[in-house]
């Protein structure tokens, strides 16, 4: 069982990065490759207004594979944050797993969300996961929270999500209107 959340704890919207917030072009190690997906700023704004902390949780095994280093991951995240700031929205936190195996943080393992909850005093039980892969939905299942699939192309094989959306915005609208309300 999770420890009880502190009084007044905020829920989190755990957001996958590649394929959910920005185009997934594979192992992204430079900010120049960031392409924010349509509707993402609006979706993040709605989550913030509904009282969610927006927490990115992303597997970046490109580090373990030697394709780029942690400073590159950090640079991409700083740039993503800056680009979103131009739209007037923010991401409260980034957690990333740099490993390929033998860790407790690579999704679908729930380590990144548990660490975020501990460090930021989040209410996990009222949280939600948005992601484009089976591993994201399995991550939601491991946490016992709703998993919303964001999948533009409709090819998906994995644990059944609570809802299949084409875009983050569609998924956020569904969640806020039909689940969180
Ligand atoms: Mg993804
Ligand atoms: Zn890890």
Summarize the structure in words.
By secondary structure, the chain is an alpha/beta fold. The protein has a single domain (12-180), classed as HAD superfamily/HAD-like (Rossmann fold, 3-Layer(aba) Sandwich), CATH 3.40.50. The protein is 33% helix and 15% strand. It contains 5 helices and 6 strands, in the order βαβαβαβαββα. The chain has helices spanning 40-49, 70-85, 111-120, 134-143, 168-180; strands at residues 12-15, 53-59, 93-97, 128-131, 147-150, 163-165. Strands 3-2-1-4-5-6 form a 6-stranded parallel beta sheet, with helices on both faces. Helix 4 links the parallel strand 4 and strand 5. The longest helix is centred in the middle third of the chain and has 16 residues, at 70-85. It starts with 11 loop residues before the first strand and ends with a helix. 38% of the residues are buried. The mean pLDDT is 95. Zinc ion binds next to loops. Zinc ion binds at residues 97, 99, 103, 105-106.
Give the CA-CA distance, first to last residue. 25 Å
How does CATH name the architecture? 3-Layer(aba) Sandwich
- Quote the average pLDDT: 95
**Ions, cofactors and other bound molecules:** magnesium ion, zinc ion
Taking pLDDT < 50 over at least 5 consecutive residues as the criterion, the unreliable ranges are none
Number of strands: 6
Question: What class, by secondary structure content?
Answer: alpha/beta
């Amino acid at each position: 069982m999770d420890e009880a959340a502190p009084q007044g704890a905020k829920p989190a919207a755990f957001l996958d990065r590649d394929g959910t917030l920005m185009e997934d072009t594979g192992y992204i190690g430079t900010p120049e490759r960031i392409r924010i997906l349509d509707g993402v700023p609006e979706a993040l704004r709605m989550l913030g207004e509904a009282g969610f902390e927006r927490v990115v949780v992303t597997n970046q095994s490109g580090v373990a594979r030697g394709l780029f280093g942690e400073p590159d991951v950090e640079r991409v995240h700083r740039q993503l944050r800056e680009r979103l700031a131009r739209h007037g929205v923010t991401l409260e936190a980034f957690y990333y797993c740099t490993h390929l195996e033998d860790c407790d943080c690579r999704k679908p393992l729930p380590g990144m969300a548990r660490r975020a909850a501990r460090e930021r005093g989040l209410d996990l039980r009222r949280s939600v996961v948005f992601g484009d892969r089976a591993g994201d939905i399995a991550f939601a299942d491991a946490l016992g929270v709703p998993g919303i699939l964001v999948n533009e192309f409709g090819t998906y094989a994995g644990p059944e999500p609570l809802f299949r959306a084409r875009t983050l915005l569609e998924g956020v609208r569904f969640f806020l209107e039909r689940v969180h309300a």
